[in-house]
Amino acid sequence: MDDAEGTARHGHGGRRAELYDAIRDDGQELAASLIQLLHAAAETSHLNPTDFQCLVLLRLGEPLSPGEIAARLKLATGTVTSVVDRLERQGLVQRDRHPDDRRRVVVRPVDPPAGDGDADGPEGPGGPGILPGFREPMMDLHERYSEAELETIADWLHRVGGVLRTFADRAR
């Protein structure tokens, strides 16, 4: 189904179709920019992009098993073992016993040392010190939006993230 068929099927045309096209095109640009940012942040952090992605994933949520990391990053479990080994050697993560199954392990990030990054909190996608200087321009950007607009943006990002994760899971 091409875009014209999708637009006709959903009954959208005119300005709404133009806005969808703009969101689609800008979304693709954003995806490319995020990949560039990932590589820049990884380089700044002295990590390779895969190790950096793993660290960001772990800093965003609860401890994960190596199998969960593999599933979320679409990596082989052997690759994840190597990634976790490298991150552990650098003191960025540690392995702990799984809370529900003592035979398994989970990986969790090690808290960064005090003073690593701004006192205000996380600077970038991975937390303090991962991408120094990133927080301020993002905060400046958000100043132009009302709280209601920021709520809409936050809601959209949350929902689109869910759609993207679902789609990625189905694409295996």
Structural topology:
Layout: H1 3-9, H2 14-44, H3 49-60, H4 66-73, H5 77-89, E1 93-97, E2 105-109, H6 135-142, H7 147-170
Antiparallel strand pairs: 1-2
Region (Disordered): 95-136
Domain HTH marR-type: 16-162
Organism: Nocardiopsis coralli
Detailed description of the structure:
The protein is mainly alpha-helical. It folds into two domains: 1-44; 46-170, Arc Repressor Mutant, subunit A, CATH 1.10.10.10. 60% of the residues lie in helices and 6% in strands. Strands 1-2 form a two-stranded antiparallel ribbon. β1 and β2 (105-109) form a beta hairpin. The chain starts with a helix and ends with a helix. The relative contact order is 0.08. The model is unreliable at 115-128 (pLDDT under 50).
